[in-house]
Structure prediction request, 166 residues.
Amino acid sequence: MDVSNFWEFLSPRLATLLTAMIPIGELRASIPIALSTYGMNIYETFVISVIGNMIPVIAILWILNPVSKFLMKRFNWARRFFNWLFSYTRRRHSKRFERYEGFALAGFVAIPLPVTGGWTGALIAFVFGIPPKRALLHIFIGVLIAGIIVTAVYQTVGYVRFIIAG
Prediction:
């Protein structure tokens, strides 16, 4: 099977879910694709996209810490890297981040731009040592807001195209 035709063999729901799981696209890709290409219902699209975006977030939040600890115990290069990463990031950004921790994380994830989203939010939570349960709540709120923004922008652009073409 040709990789370029992979998506053609999936149901629209599964393709939307998988698209939302990809770190580059997330909701910014899954919602417009589901609405325009697959003609899916807006509510179904939103729910499937949010679920798809949250699946890797959950995995990242619960896997990164044990994996980093394992690597730090086994490899000097990993210990040096993670010690540098944690100290550098926390030294440079901790005062601002600690003050607005939940709002900052949710707000960052909510901005539907490249390199912002659930994946990056989970990585930020890991670096700043935010407990997974608390981080999950804030990231989920951010993903919901991003989904609403992307859906609203898509709907607005769709209506503008209709008015201009009509």
In short: The chain has a mean pLDDT of 87. The CA atoms of residues 20 and 49 lie 5 Å apart. Helices lie at 12-21, 26-36, 42-74, 76-99, 101-110, 118-127, 132-165.
